[in-house]
Design goal:
Elements (H helix, E strand, L loop, with lengths): L1 E3 L4 H10 L7 H11 L4 E9 L13 E7 L2 H12 L3 H30 L1 E8 L9 H8 L5 E2 L5 E2 L3 E10 H6 L14 H5 L10
Antiparallel strand pairs: 1-2, 2-3, 3-7, 4-7, 5-6
């Protein structure tokens, strides 16, 4: 699945504050964001799991496994900046990519809510809550189209993630006032601050 991503001006301002850039860096950050603007399509693949034991160590009866990635062109630009010694710009791009991934989680949740009638709960990432070695089994099961990993289990493109999330029926989540931000560790995400519920928001 492909999703078009974007960052609001308020989110760009938050990047300046959260990642300790100076106000004078904002112009350069915006220019860099405009440079990657043609490549802001994210792609993801997922599989819903309805019984335990499908993937070793993932003992959940009802969950979804997601493999998501930003465009490879963002990796290419970051490599170019590093080779040119533009380390501040490379770091800025890293921060932009991180915020784009956070926005991507929201888009994925919206898609699954509309397509599968489930909301996501408790995102656990491979490499954090689960060992990287599970990638072999997960990739065989999900069969992603645009992401791979190398012998050291590094995801390619670099700005890629693999996570597992519990599934809650859409109506049940609505009745409970469910919001994915309560179950995600991305505390600085712009969506968390908006306090808007998945079940009340459509795809932009």
């Amino acid at each position: 699945m492909n999703v078009t991503l974007s960052l609001s001006e308020s989110c760009l301002n938050e990047i300046i504050n959260h990642y300790h850039f100076s106000p004078s860096d904002k112009k350069e950050l915006i220019q860099l964001y405009e440079e990657i603007n043609p490549y802001l399509d994210g792609s993801f693949d997922y599989k819903i799991v309805t019984k335990k034991g499908v993937i070793k160590q993932i003992e959940r009866e009802q969950c979804v496994i997601v493999i998501a990635s930003l465009s490879k062109q963002i990796d290419d630009l970051q490599n170019k900046l590093q080779k040119q010694g533009e380390m501040l710009k490379a770091y800025m791009l890293d921060c932009l990519a991180l915020e784009l991934l956070k926005a991507f989680y929201e888009k994925i949740g919206q898609y699954i809510r509309e397509k599968e009638q489930y909301c996501l709960e408790k995102l656990d990432f491979i490499g954090e809550e689960y060992p990287l070695e599970l990638l072999e089994e997960i990739f065989t099961y999900v069969k992603p189209k645009n992401v791979r990993y190398n012998k050291g289990y590094q995801l390619i493109p670099h700005n890629s993630v693999v996570f597992v999330a519990n599934l809650i029926e859409k109506e049940k989540a609505k009745n409970q006032g469910f919001h994915i931000c309560e179950h995600c560790k991305a505390e600085k995400c712009e969506y968390r601050k908006s306090l808007g519920s998945f079940v009340d928001k459509g795809l932009e």
